[in-house]
Q: What sequence folds into this?
């Protein structure tokens, strides 16, 4: 019996599928634009591409994405469904729109990979290992202050393999997002700056409140176009 794929393997496979679809689609479009009379050749490509696009839904595992990402994917899949009802040979704008939708899906998949934290579901030691890699120069005390725990607690977590506390899971998710736009010092500074999208609160001040989790993730992603408001 084949071993179950890891999170990274599943998303990597989905990313390659979408990239392959984009490449094949682009080749077919360019061929049709250069040789419009060869519509029959494009038709063969189109049928294969349409079939594979419709199959994308089956390759998306909802557990690999959060609510915002799933909402973006759901909208993209609906857009694909509607666009596939059109005949691209008579309207090449449909092809361009489908390429844009596919790129939107790839952005979500890549972000999900970029934002992944090892061990978040069930291994606090692995979470702490990722944080140590991302925040190498940050003193434990600074991290402990944001989390609202004693510095010795961080040392204890590093030697455990139990489910991490909710605030640590959220903190690690936020760091995983922020590290792509900020260095370690900038990431830590982000937690202590009041933000308008948090009603003037500092991220660190609401980190322990589950009611603010979605708002924190949205705030951290605010620099990424598909999540920006």
A:
């Amino acid at each position: 019996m084949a071993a179950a794929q890891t999170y990274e393997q599943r998303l990597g496979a989905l990313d390659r599928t979408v990239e392959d679809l984009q490449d094949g689609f682009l080749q077919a479009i360019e061929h049709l634009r250069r040789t419009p009379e060869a519509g029959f050749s494009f038709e063969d490509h189109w049928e294969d591409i349409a079939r594979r696009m419709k199959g994308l839904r089956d390759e998306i595992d909802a557990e690999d994405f959060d609510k915002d990402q799933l909402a973006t994917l759901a909208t993209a899949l609906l857009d694909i469904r509607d666009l596939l009802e059109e005949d691209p040979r008579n309207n090449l704008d449909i092809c361009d729109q489908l390429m844009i939708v596919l790129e939107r899906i790839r952005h979500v998949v890549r972000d999900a990979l970029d934002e992944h934290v090892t061990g978040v579901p069930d291994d606090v030691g692995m979470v702490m290992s990722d944080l140590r890699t991302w925040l190498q120069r940050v003193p434990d005390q600074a991290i402990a202050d944001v989390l609202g725990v004693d510095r010795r607690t961080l040392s204890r977590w590093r030697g455990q393999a139990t489910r991490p506390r909710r605030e640590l899971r959220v903190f690690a998710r936020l760091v995983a997002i922020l590290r792509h736009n900020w260095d370690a010092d900038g990431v830590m500074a982000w937690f202590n700056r009041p933000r308008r999208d948090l009603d003037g609160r500092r991220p660190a001040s609401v980190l322990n409140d589950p009611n603010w989790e979605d708002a924190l993730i949205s705030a951290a992603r605010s620099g990424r176009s598909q999540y920006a408001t």
